Sequence to fold (55 residues):
Amino acid sequence: MYVVCKEHVELAIDKFVDEYEDAPDIVDLKETEFSDWDPPAKCAECEKDGAFLVV
Fold:
């Protein structure tokens, strides 16, 4: 599972496929709320705000 900015979505997809050998789901964090989990505020690859969850 990766929280990334728009710029790093492709990198996160590649990492996910390499690790799990399956296609991930992409969740837009601006359109989705989680009741029991707060996603990290920053991208896993840089200091920009996290915009997508790759899971």
